[in-house]
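Contributing new records

If you add data, match the layout below exactly. Sequence lines come first and carry their own label; structure lines follow with theirs. Keep one chain per record. Anything else will be rejected by the validation script.
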Amino acid sequence: MKLYCYTYHADKILQEGYLSVAANPNPKQLEMYARKAGSTDFEDIKKYLEKTLPGRTRSISCLTEKAPIEDYEHPYLDYLVHNATVISFELDDLMKDRLVEMIYCKDNSETAKTDIDFENVYKIKNPAEIDTSPLNWHQCSEAYGSPYNMLRHYILILSKGFIPPEYITLEK
């Protein structure tokens, strides 16, 4: 199964691999979690992430599809779709080579409408459980924060904290 990620650092990823927070401790990556963590301190945010989901600092988030190239109401989603690069990787290859320890689904598409802070995260026991039904990209609204608050996506806990470059494909 092919999974997708949007990035502004494709060249670096294709050379170094796709790095989690643990493999690339860049405080800029964690700014989006500062409000929920109640701190802007890098170490506090990492502690918050690990408390919410063990291994989360060694994780990456991914989608089951690329967004259609359309205009979107959500300004960040619109910018992302029109300006970011999409990379992909085969989950089966990562699983076979034991690069993925655990898979979680985060689906706040309904819960974010009533409680933006609630994270509807659940464990995927088998990759066959991954929901590949189409995502509703147009439901994303600034009122619900990040587009990822409204899009079902998957959190891969990586055994080494990164996906080596040889597993990564640049999408067109």
